[in-house]
Sequence to fold (609 residues):
Amino acid sequence: MTASVRWQRLIGTVGRHALLIAGAVVFLMPFVFIVLTSLMTNDQALSDRLWPDPFQPSNFVDVFHQAPILRWTLNTTIYAGLATLGVLVSSIPVAYALAKLRWRGRNAAFMVVLVALMLPPQVSVVPLYVMWSKLGLVGSLWPLIIPNWFGDAFTIFLLRQFFLTIPDEYLDAARVDGCGELRVLFTVVLRMARPAIAAVAMFSVLYTFNDFFLPLLYVGEKPDNWVVSIGLSQFRNLHQVQWNLTMAATLLVMAPVILLFFCAQRAFVEGVTLTGVKG
Amino acid sequence: MRSLGRRDVIPSARRASRRRADWRRRGLVLFLMSPWIIGFTVFFAYPILDTAYLSFFHYDLLSPPRYIGLDNYRFLLHDDPRVWPAIKNTLWLIAVMVPARIVFALAIALMLARIRSGAGVARTIFYLPALVPPVAATLGFVYLLNPATGPVNKGLGVLGLSGPNWFQSPEWAKPSLVLLGMWAVGNVMVIFLASVLDVPRQLYEAAEIDGAGTFQRFRHVTVPAISPVILFAIVIGVIEALQYFTQAYVAAHIAAGQASQAGSVTTSELGYPLGSTLFYPILLYDAAFRRFTMGYASALTMVLLVVAFAVTYVIIRRSRSLIYQEGTQS
Fold:
């Protein structure tokens, strides 16, 4: 290797690292400022200073007095819990039938799942709103929860992709041993697909936690049933609350998601990769 | 049929039992598929058909729908002064935000793929913002980019620059949303990173022996190898742009609230400031759930549906490998 090539390499490596470090600093900055502001007094948050002095950690207690955050958290927990349970119960069998059973129309059925996956949720929202309002359920959490008990396209898609990677030999072995299809699904497939199911459950929890559009439609007018995302969006205007408290609330909403990520990092990244790489 | 000659030989009892097994199998498939069959019918097929139907009616949820022919579409095309701005804003997202995010995500992924020390930490840092709930992220950015008191403009002030009015200015509101989108680019970045790491090393070595420089290796090895993933990212980006709602809604809501607090009265909070963040889904939301003009909202939905179907058609045509097992590892 000639000296000039080695120099070029070195410059490239140093340059890359410098750029990445600068980028990482910029990416972390918003977090830093949000944390710092959440510890300031209101006057400081409006002043030129960037460092809190004195520190005011009591903001994180005040936040709970300003708004019924626990109530929102409870609603979000109900929504996320029941929706995720429903997504798993209803999507696993569908994914299994699409991946591991042979039947006429299977590819067409999967195509329909893909189309449903791609279309924006807005395309079905007007008639569904009319339907839920005729049923008298607008204002409750049910319009958010119930559809999840009838298969979720994204979950079906991900689980099918994962089920395809399970070798048929395992299933055939179980069938030869006299297992019916349901037993094969429950014993062999579910056990082997545990990481994928965990990833899918996590995505569902995240999706419901972050969901804003549908809660806005169905519980937006009913503060008792607000979920965290709606509550947070209204927090600052609720009673002209200050920025320091708003940032403390923002941080409280970010925290569970980020904790979840650090607890289950591998499942996360694998799941995200599964969605894309196979395209 | 190979077994045609032998069919008559099979005793009818066995034939019947095989037919029973066939039916049982069909029943099983039907049973397993039933959640999706119901879900698809009730929450997907029916709403789309009903939207098409309602788009020819005047309907305000209170009185029964009244047939008005093509009036909704006529109003959409000719009379509603907000339709074209909304379409233009959404096209702006597709033309600016989608490419900006993809180029940015690819650049980070390429750099991350080539470092050895600290790769895990760096990956986590660049991925983390994608996890932040969109409402929280938007709130954070409205604060960071607050014209007078936000840290970004304070920082620019220290450097002797006067920052723009960001979410308070019609020119800068959309670019502010792009910044937010670039910060939360982690999902795209992770997918690019995985595909870049999948490119066989031998290809790079061969290109290097042939005397290819860094850019040529990128252009002639990396890009062709990951082009399916790039296409995937573009299509997903366009689909996301078509339904872009939460960030625009929250940013306008908070920024307008702040402005009205400061005394400058705002006309309408949706699309604030001055309709610069009025994207198509926001218009649709306004028509359906603020004004309760359900028929007109259905007509707006039909336009969105046609566009979304066209985009979906492209990706499904291109990803046949998803459907047939062979070649999934593209």
